[in-house]
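A.,

Following up on our hallway conversation. Structure tokens first:
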């Protein structure tokens, strides 16, 4: 499977410049992030992608959109792969609001507050990553799946830090490397 960290968001842009939380809930991609997302169409062109799973945050939805459009795929929204709650950007948007912005996607499986409220423990995000790894390992389609997620979740899922807009192939049936 391919795991992809969302492209640069407005939160990432401002936080990188100031090292302070800019107070943006569910931020969109920055202009640079949109350029990165469009570039993923070419970067992933040689990969066999038949399914896209995406976190319900705006930045991941916007990151997945160009690839999904190019491949004629409709991403599946999965709240389990959301970001580890620690900053203002980790507050999401309600399903009705997301459905207005993304009418082609199905948000009906989301609770009204699908994101984690408050700061999420590392153990909780690691548990979500273990559950998702088990789901993917059991799926016969994991090899052809693109997962668009977040820095904190992907660290728990892959044991590696990833930059905005970067991707890598992993095998979810293999154990994580020891710390």
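Then the amino acids I'd put at each of the 179 positions:
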């Amino acid at each position: 499977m391919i795991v992809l960290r969302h492209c640069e968001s407005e939160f990432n842009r401002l936080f990188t410049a100031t090292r302070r939380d800019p107070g943006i809930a569910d931020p969109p991609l920055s202009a640079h992030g949109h350029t990165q997302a469009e570039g993923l169409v070419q970067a992933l062109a040689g990969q066999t992608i038949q399914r896209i799973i995406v976190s319900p945050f705006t930045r991941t939805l916007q990151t997945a959109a160009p690839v999904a459009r190019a491949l004629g795929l409709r991403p599946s929204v999965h709240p389990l792969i959301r970001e580890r709650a620690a900053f203002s950007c980790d507050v999401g948007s309600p399903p009705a609001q997301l459905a207005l912005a993304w009418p082609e996607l199905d948000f009906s499986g989301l609770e009204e507050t699908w994101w984690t409220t408050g700061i999420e423990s590392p153990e909780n995000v690691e548990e979500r990553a273990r559950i998702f790894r088990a789901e993917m390992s059991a799926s016969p389609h994991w090899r052809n799946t693109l997962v668009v997620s977040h820095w904190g979740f992907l660290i728990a899922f892959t044991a590696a830090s990833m930059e905005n807009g970067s991707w890598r192939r992993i095998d979810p049936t293999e154990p994580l490397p020891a710390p």
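The mean pLDDT is 96. Curious whether your intuition agrees with the design.

B.
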